[in-house]
Amino acid sequence: MEIQPIVIGTAGHIDHGKSTLVRALTGTDPDRWEEEKARGMTIDLGFARFDLPSGRTVGIVDVPGHERFVRNMVAGATGIDLVLLVVAADDGVMPQTREHLAIMELVGVERGVVVLTKVDLVDPELADLSEEILRETLEGTFLEGAPLVRLSAVTGEGMEELRAVLAHEVEKTPPRSTEGIFRMPVQRVFSVRGFGTVLTGIPVSGSVEVGEMLEVLPLGQRGKVRGLQAYHDAVQVARAGHSTAINLSDIDHRRVTRGDVVATPGFFRPLKMVGGKLRALADLERPIVNRMRVRVHTGTADALGELVLLDAQELGGGEEGLVQFRLSEPLVCAPGDRFVVRLASPVITLGGGVILEESRYRLKRFKAFVIDELERQASSLNSPLALLEAQLARHPDRWVPLDELAVILKRPRSETAALLAELEEKGKASSPGPGERWIHVDTLALCLDQVRDAIGRYFEEHPTRRKVDVRDLRSATTFDPALLAVLLDELAQGEELLLEPGGLVVPRGRRVVLDEATARLRERVLESLEGAGFQPPSASALAERLGVGAGELRAVLEHLVDEGEIVHLGGEAFIAAGPHGRAREEIIENCRRNGQLEIPELRDRLGTTRKYLIPLLEHFDASGLTVRRGAGRVLRRRS
After folding, report:
1. Average pLDDT estimate for 20-39
2. Class of domain 514-639
3. What's the sign of the alpha-carbon dihedral 357, 360, 365, 369?
4. Do domains 2-172 and 271-375 have the same CATH topology?
5. φ/ψ (deg, to 5) at 459
6. Which residues pair with 227 in a beta bridge?
7. Rounded to an integer, what distance in angstroms lies between the CA atom of residue 568 and that of residue 614?
8. Which residues contact residue 549 at a Cβ distance below 8 angstroms, ignoring those fewer than 6 apart?
9. Cα–Cα dist 260/254, whole Å
10. CATH number of 2-172
11. Are 64 and 94 a contacting pair, CB within 8 Å?
12. Using N-to-C axis directions, what is the helix angle for 402-409 and 384-394, rounded to 10°?
């Protein structure tokens, strides 16, 4: 058996012969429940296998036609690739005919066949009239000009023609791709004695093999695939576009319901906020208004929530707008998924559209950046490469790990890496620094400008400084430390600045010109510290001795540190560069001579006291010259 990854779905008003037609085409009764057989109407979704003349197999899903079960109809519509619109010749076009047609269009179905059934019950003239009205109804829809077959499932009239037309249309229908991560909205769940839990549905992306682990969401539990069936035949691999049954271990069937999703672990999460693009039904009698209570149908799930209009005050018939759904219960979906929106009460279909984003926060109405980002997302949905670029460009963390991008894109790591390499080749993405992290080139340029601006502002506020501490830049930019390090390295490679030990950043060519008063103070400070040798005064004592303010003195001390004339030991302790260098040499010689630092000997050699020696020794510990070992100090080994 060769399975074509295409699903045909019925649509149409109640009692127009959908189930009878499916039974005549496939030999399978799609009405599974006793209640359905007793009432003579389809309540739930029915599935059947349809063998084409070519020997290949496709699936047929039969949906309920009664208005009370449109919820179930929508659950089946999202897996359909080719619609079979059924209209009875004796009834003609009815309300559910129009609603089902609209729903099929809203969920993205683009191809179909029209069937005029029960022609055996009317005379040819009435059949002609019904066909004429039907074609008028289809004008302007995706079924305008679609093949139309008259038939009777009872007498068999038109059945062979329908089979031939369906086979022809199936050949022209693009099959579902296996790209992306495996995901299947659950249609049914039950338990089989000796096997355990079985989940059925139509996978919408990816593929899965026997033995793999899958996750049931929003339950959050994982189980191993014990067995797979496609159209009741055991298979090793199930893929998008096949009606599939999955026998899953370690999952309690009583905790899984229709609307749940079974998927490759780690890529999908339950959401209570999603952004989307909504189109109102053309014949909508009442406008869609902000904060309207609605039901959002996507996959096999539906959730109650609030509809927030982001770029319009209201949407009239046929109008489009950007929206955010704020839901009372979680949905599992992804950008590109189709949805249908129905009013919570009274229950009527309002419109539908496409999911654009998994919202991280509440989106504000009429904000230009929100609207621009969502429009960019909408324009990229048909291209994985464009979608990846859009996600990379708008990610709040700017610099994103490859694994996280794979989750966002809902594609395997290898596919995501290949797409990133393609973006890099096009000059749209870059992976600077260590690790597999990526950033959009526009974001990179913007971040580099932010660092340049932060450096510029710092020196405007500190005109006597020649260097800036990276910690000050981190506070000014709020960048992640790892990202800031990458940005500074980029600027250093571009010869815009120098990176010095101790986290100091020096713009190339920066010169500091002191005014006359500051220059005089500079000389007095330097003279005082050089004269003090190994017993330098604290900053506050020095300010008092020189008769200057603490802020004024601090600026000069920082300037002298930048110029290498003095060294900051920490806190209020500063020492002139000459004594600092001599102390370093004495420590090295002392350790080499004694095996470890003999502090009394060093104190005598420097002619200082413990009060001044302790900050000096702690400074050399911090700078990496020495390291504590037990109660003493030794030279740090160099690798």
Report:
1. 58
2. mainly alpha
3. negative
4. no
5. -75, -20
6. 247
7. 14
8. 543
9. 12
10. 3.40.50.300
11. no
12. 120
Query: What's the one-letter identity of residue 156?
Result: G
Q: Which of 112, 118, 26, 39 is nearest to 77 (CA)?
A: 112
Q: What is the mean pLDDT of the chain?
A: 89
CATH homologous superfamily for the domain 271-375: Translation factors (2.40.30.10)
Contacts of 229 (CB under 8 A, 6+ apart): 235, 244, 245
A 10 A CB-CB count for 480 gives 13
Structure tokens that stand for 291 in this block: 């904060």
Place of tokens 């309002």: 350
Q: Which helix (H) or strand (E) holds 233?
A: strand 233-235
DSSP code string of 336-388? T-EEEEEESSS--EEEEEEEEEE-SSPPPTT-HHHHHHHHHHHHTTT-HHHHH
CA distances from 397 to 261, 484, 511 (A): 28, 12, 35
Q: Which two tokens stand for residue 389?
A: 């670029």
Q: Where are the domains of the chain?
A: 2-172, 183-263, 271-375, 383-513, 514-639
Q: Give 558-578 pLDDT, tens digit per residue.
A: 999 999 999 999 999 999 999
Residue 142 burial by Cβ neighbours in a 10 Å radius (0-12, 13-18, 19+): middle
Q: How far apart are CA 625 and CA 422, in angstroms?
A: 47
pLDDT at position 530: 94
- Residue 539: count other Cβ atoms within 10 Å of its Cβ: 18
User: pTM of the predicted model, to two decimals?
Assistant: 0.78
Paired tokens of 352: 């539908």
CA distance 60 to 390: 36
CATH code, 383-513: 1.10.10
In sequence order, the β-bridge partners of residue 228 are: 235, 246
Q: What residues contact 197, with CB distance under 8 A and at least 6 apart?
A: 189, 190, 191, 223, 247, 248, 249, 251, 252, 253, 256
Q: Which CATH code for domain 183-263?
A: 2.40.30.10
The residue count for the chain: 639
